[in-house]
Amino acid sequence: MQNIEWSTLPFGYLPTNYNVRCYYRNGKWGEIEVSSETTINIHMAATCLHYGQEAFEGLKAFRGEDGKVRIFRLEENAKRLQSSCDGIMMPQFPIEKFEEAMKKCVQLNADFIPPYGSGASLYLRPLIIGTGIRVGVSPADEYLFLVFATPVGPYFKGGFQANPYVITRKYDRAAPLGTGTYKVGGNYAASMRPHMEACQGGKYACEFYLDAKEKCYIDEAGAANFFAIKDNTYITPLSTSILPSITNKSLMFLAEKMGMKVERRPIHVDELATFEEAGACGTAAVISPISRIDDLENNKSYVFGDGKPGPQSEKLYNKLRGIQCGTEPDEYGWITMVEGC
Ligand code: PLP
Ligand code: COI
Question: Which of 283, 286, 287, 324 for mutating ligand 2's site (highest number of atoms within 8 Å of CB)?
């Protein structure tokens, strides 16, 4: 076990021991390889550098109270990576290889898995890049898959603590029929200026985008989906330009199991005024409760609750965390156990 101040870890990069790689050449993926190099050597005409042929994922491994190590919803991340690959003309990475790579990466970096109760976890960041040479715009013929691990704390300030968010009307992140449903680097490049301008150096935790066509429905935040609660109903946007969040999918399922109604539909900005609770959700964000959303251009401010996380959000958070850390049973097959850690 490393000598790290686990409970104050930020969401950032800390060097670990190994990463895991796999190369696509001559029309097929090779064997999983282990590397201790933290750099990659690629051709200057690689498609990832010029035309953004890059997709990534984010998933977490948790050490439980029982000392065992669990990865949450690995197969869902593997499938979403395949969908992102389809979206930008990269070869799909096989699900079995994805599982092998994630397990190996966790095992090899077991010293860096934060202890149970620290609030931190081991974040896995798989990615695929086009490494083949192209100058005209077309897909590469060679690719690199890589996954590294790094221990992380909360993405938004304070973790499960309510923070203010802001609506950005000046920019769109993704077009209705664009790449918003894929986890590709270009979407995040597109969010950097809006984030910097809207969040005003940390005044707001994150920016919310509206649908690009009508500019009146909530899409999502730069790094998380949106959900709200009213009248015992879990409500989350239906949109063709947002990432299908695996955390949100899990929360919709759990909300229903916990006796709530679930609605996935367009959410008009005006409806924000009617919500009892609101939150941002994602692997990095987990559930990050929202205290307030400011719509500065319209001079409006929507306040949720009394500045503390709401009761339904807290119930969902505890259930999700419980499954991830093994204090709640894995009734739905969401957990992959990692042996030998
Ligand atoms: N939306 C965006 C833009 C994200 O970057 C993320 C993070 O992965 C999410 C939503 C949440 O998705 P997930 O719950 O699968 O991590
Ligand atoms: C995640 O939640 O895993 C993300 O990828 C969000 C952000 C760090 C890009």
Answer: 283
